[in-house]
Amino acid sequence: MKRPSIRARLLLWTTILTTLILVGAGYFLYQSVSRTLYEQQNQLLAEAATVVMIEVEVKNREVYHEWKESLETHPWQQSTALIQVTDYHSGELVRSEALSDFNLENRYGELGERVFYDLLLPDGSMGRAVGILTLPIVEYPEGNEGFDPESRPQIFVWAENTKNLHKIMNRLRRSFIISGIAVLILLWGAIWMVISLSSRAVRAVSDEMISREGSEMGQPISIPDNLPSEVAILAEIFNVLLAKIDTSREKDRDFFLNLAHEVRTPLAGVRAEIEQALRKPRENDDYRRRLERALEGTEGLNTLVNRLMKFGSLRRKESNLAFEQVDISSLLKRIWRAFEPRAEERRLKVEWRLEDKVEIHSDVELLKIIISNLLENAISYSVEGSSIRVKVEAASSNLNIVVENAVEGPEVSSEDLEKFFDPFYRGDQSRAQVGNHAGIGLSFSREIVALLGGAIRVSQVSADRIAFEVSLPR
């Protein structure tokens, strides 16, 4: 499936949104101008109608249309003025000469209210009209005695051709469309240029990522100065991941080299014993001693293989955890009994700092592996004749197990202390090997502790003592 492009999306959506915004703004501006022009047209209509409407008068108790006489004195107005007056009750019409026999549409509101509307003119064109319900004016009371203007309301209509207004509106519409298209083209070009320039650095980084070969994975990618900050963060994270991948690959390479060394040493011993046993006839006791030494070597190999299998199983999260309540103090002493003979051989004493009935809800078998590795490590690397301190510290949510032993040599830096958890690490005098070890105990323990949701730390509590602390959730 083809992945969407950020650049294409930006171009598409910014173009669509700016187009919609400009079209919407142009439409509202056009409507505003159109409304203003119509309001001006209505105002002119109302002013013209007001001037003529007062010439609907009363003479000799009859409605008299003086405006017709005014039109006759102005021939050009007589042929263009569109005026119609209708008697509200009788329906009698009085029209200007320009209307001939054509009747204008009557619309009106309350008395004196101006009602504006579009209508069809005699020549078939569209026009604009104002309709007013009005009363005839009694200018001279003499001769009009007893006449009530309210009994003879008139519907006055003044209409004008809107041809010029429509021309103006058409030109305005064309201007808006042409200028809008020009602005859109310029805006689209500016958007395309800005996005293209802004995404150039992003494309350069993505191209470099894509072009990487397996042998170049560990090398960081170059981050241009003009790379956007949002993408620069991703590029920096990518470089961190590359560094971690490189470190992981290096650790895996060292792991297998160390593993080969760990396997080769006991294999060489087993082979040497067997070759010497087969080189010439020997006494039964001699054969037995050599076979026992060869068996001891194969047991070491068997221990290494079993540890590696468990180690790999935990890394793949294949183990099913079985949680139950465990008395940690009792478990510690029970496991220590298996190590007592070795501790006595090296004249090591154990100092218990435990609390009674300290329970934890965890996987017993995994706890045994962690504790066994810590105790075995302490016995193997302690100064002969020193003491091993085992302490349990219980809190409401966590439980800490501390195994501390004496060491010889200078203080170890914090960086070197962390290397204790690397498989097969033998970096200093305090890690000089004593006994038969697979070399992955502490690394294995860290994997198990992480699986149980805890943490393991190492620290040099004094110049001659190192402590391993395991913190697990209760």
Mind explaining what this structure looks like?
It is a single chain. With 474 residues, the protein is an alpha+beta fold. It has three domains: 6-169, 2-Layer Sandwich (Beta-Lactamase), CATH 3.30.450; 229-315, Helix Hairpins (Orthogonal Bundle); 323-473, Histidine kinase-like ATPase, C-terminal domain (Heat Shock Protein 90, 2-Layer Sandwich). The chain has ten helices and 14 strands. The chain has helices at residues 6-53, 66-72, 75-78, 163-211, 229-279, 284-315, 328-345, 364-381, 414-418, 441-451, and strands at residues 56-59, 62-65, 82-87, 93-95, 114-120, 126-134, 154-161, 323-327, 349-353, 359-363, 387-394, 398-406, 455-462, 465-473. The strands form four sheets. The protein has a five-stranded antiparallel β-sheet with strand order 4-3-7-6-5, with helices on one face. The chain has a five-stranded mixed β-sheet with strand order 9-11-12-14-13. A two-stranded antiparallel sheet has the order 1-2. Strand 5 (114-120) and strand 6 (126-134) form a beta hairpin. The two termini are 47 Å apart.
